[in-house]
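> forwarded from #structure-qc
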């Protein structure tokens, strides 16, 4: 039976109501690939996937900081028989040293959120990487659910923009308002990191665990997803619980990470633009020098 786009939208909104979450998860479990592994296979799948996730989160957490990047530059400088501060000082002279440290931050997310999980998928799970959310699949059918998530968050952003803590916190890159180049380069790094994050949590995490534990993969995913938000402002961290849960349900239904990415992109750019507007710091030139 064919449903109109309006009918699909109403159904998604109804199913994402908090009272319907368990019913939505039951519906997911009624279909393959939920619980398609036997018990020994499921045990090994959970072991390998959660071990990979633990290692990846550990690597990202301890490598992503600018202090690690600076220490690496010091080692490299000494390796080529230069003073320890040589490479960092050279980068400072470009005027983009902070942006470059954020490129390091983004690269750490590529390593931990994409490359290592991709290796596990290829060597252990042995399924096409595209099966883990990279395809568009049924994303268009679930547009109402993604808009339902995005709309109140953008409203919150508008309200929060008057808060001094919010303005001081965003954008993370402090020179984003210096020029359009700074702003666009920062947003490319920031949004690229969200593609990596969505693949890790809503692609690899969910799709790899679903055959073993069914829709419970969503609840398991929500715990580390909440924890990576602890350094952020508390309303954002608290909202990550419900946000992660609903994005997880939508990701399993659409078999795609792209709806979640566009929600994150809308929120991230919205926060940065709202903060820059409040500061009166919208870029006025393309190149800073």
């Amino acid at each position: 039976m064919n449903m109109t786009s309006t009918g699909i939208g109403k159904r998604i909104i109804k199913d994402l109501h908090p009272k319907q979450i368990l019913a939505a998860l039951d519906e997911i479990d009624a279909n393959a690939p939920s619980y398609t592994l036997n018990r020994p296979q499921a045990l090994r799948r959970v072991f390998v996937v959660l071990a990979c996730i633990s290692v990846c989160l550990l690597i990202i957490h301890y490598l992503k900081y600018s202090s690690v990047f600076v220490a690496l530059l010091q080692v490299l400088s000494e390796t080529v028989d230069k003073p320890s501060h040589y490479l960092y000082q050279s980068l400072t002279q470009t005027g983009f040293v902070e942006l470059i440290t954020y490129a390091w931050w983004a690269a750490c997310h590529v390593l931990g959120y994409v490359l290592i999980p991709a290796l596990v998928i290829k060597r252990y799970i042995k399924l096409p990487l595209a099966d883990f959310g990279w395809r568009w699949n049924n994303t268009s059918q679930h547009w109402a659910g993604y808009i339902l998530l995005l709309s109140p968050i953008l409203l919150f952003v508008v309200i929060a923009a008057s808060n001094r803590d919010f303005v001081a916190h965003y954008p993370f890159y402090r020179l984003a308002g210096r020029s359009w180049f700074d702003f666009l380069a920062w947003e490319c790094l920031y949004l690229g990191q969200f593609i990596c994050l969505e693949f890790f949590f809503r692609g690899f995490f969910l799709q790899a665990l679903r055959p073993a534990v069914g829709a419970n993969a969503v609840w398991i995913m929500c715990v580390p997803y909440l924890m990576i938000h602890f350094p952020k402002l508390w309303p954002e961290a608290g909202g990550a619980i419900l946000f992660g849960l609903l994005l997880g349900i939508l990701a399993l239904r659409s078999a795609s990470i792209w709806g979640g990415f566009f929600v994150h992109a809308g929120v991230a750019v919205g926060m940065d633009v709202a903060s820059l507007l409040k500061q009166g710091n919208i870029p006025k030139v393309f190149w800073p020098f």
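QC bot note: The CA atoms of residues 194 and 264 lie 7 Å apart. The chain has a mean pLDDT of 91.
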